[in-house]
Amino acid sequence: MSVITLTINGELVSARSGQSLLEAIRDQGISLPTLCYLDGLSTRGGCRLCLVEISGQARLQPACTTTAGEGMVVVTHNDKINRYRKMILELTFAERNHTCAVCVSNEHCELQTLAAELGMDHVRYDYLNPQLGIDISHEKYGVDHNRCILCLRCVRVCDEVEGAHTWDVRHRGIASRVITDLNRPWGESESCTECGKCVEVCPTGALFDKGMSVGEMKKKTNFLRRILDGREKNQWNR
Amino acid sequence: MAETVKKIRLATVWLGGCSGCHMSLLDLDEALIDLLTRADLVYGPLVDAKKYPEDVDICLVEGAVTNVENLELARHIRTNTRTVISFGDCAVTGNVTSMRNRIPVSDLLNAVYHEVSAPIGPEALKVLPALLKKVIPLHQAIKVDLFLPGCPPHPERIAAVLQALVNGDDVDLPADMRTFG
Lengths: 238, 181
Hints:
The complex is a heterodimer of chains A (238) and B (181).
Chain A: E1 3-8, E2 11-16, H1 21-27, E3 51-54, E4 61-62, E5 73-75, H2 79-95, H3 110-117, E6 134-135, E7 141-144, H4 153-162, E8 167-170, E9 177-180, H5 197-201, E10 207-209, H6 223-232
Parallel strand pairs in A: 1-5
Antiparallel strand pairs in A: 1-2, 3-4, 3-5, 6-7, 7-10, 8-9
Chain B: E1 8-14, H1 20-26, H2 30-38, E2 39-43, E3 56-62, E4 65-67, H3 68-80, E5 81-87, H4 89-93, H5 105-114, H6 124-127, E6 131-136, E7 146-148, H7 155-166
Parallel strand pairs in B: 1-2, 1-3, 3-5, 5-7
Antiparallel strand pairs in B: 4-6
């Protein structure tokens, strides 16, 4: 294993060659916010919360999709980055109908927690209040598009870990929606194995177990590492 | 001779909300007594004052701005208050009150006052303040100085904010006291 050296927030640190910048930064005990990133899934740089400043690059780069490089000089927090992160959260809240008080994931939501941690105490943009549906046609699970932040963890876990690829995305930009089986109701999906991985990795209350009431939906994302490690060690094949 | 300290003039206002934030304020319990040795409650649903007074130091505004009366009062509060606080999620985000934003106002009024037999029928529309097309959080109507989130905000949060303000300190809530919901 070769080791590289880079500078993070003025400190000279070492990282494993090939490691992502996000991992290298977190290995130093620095907390970097993320929503679309999840250990065990491919990275996509979608939520833009892990944006960092890299010397010599004009634009901020998402740390999750950037490979840590020899001699890189990286800044993880400054006024500009902090301001951008807040704006990203404000736009996320404005884009759909996140009414925390009446959400199944109230008090167990990654978006809600991050907003408080990053000091996003109000939204300066106009709320769009889009007309969005809820699909509860599935026997065990439901999807509430009002609370979806398009992190696409569900799409990735279903494809990469479960191997079913039930989830995908239709439309583009702000009109994007997660869909099941070429936009059929989830309950009519022929590819869904009902494994529930998508529900567990969803950072908000967008995917939930049916029957859950306000604040009852607690997600556990750590199962993913256990499954993947077990596969690697040939302890099981699922 | 004991120095007389000028008491803080505190007001509370109930706009488009459920009064849950005011209930949470009452849940300060004995801390309310301490608070009222330092502050006078000069206006709000909990006291008998008809008009929002002048020269208010701190105002806790519960609820979103949902009709023309709310909007008028909000502007009046701003003119007469040093520190305006968005008190609870409805004031801060629109919250449950703003869930009607996806429905045209005419459909809403029809559903509530015309289509069903309600104790108050269509005649109410002549006296009720006109609804705004969309419910807005308080800071979209007036400048807000502080945001106190929660549905309702836990009494601990309210106490922390009011204590800091009464003592003339900066308000610096920890992250777990800043969450929505």
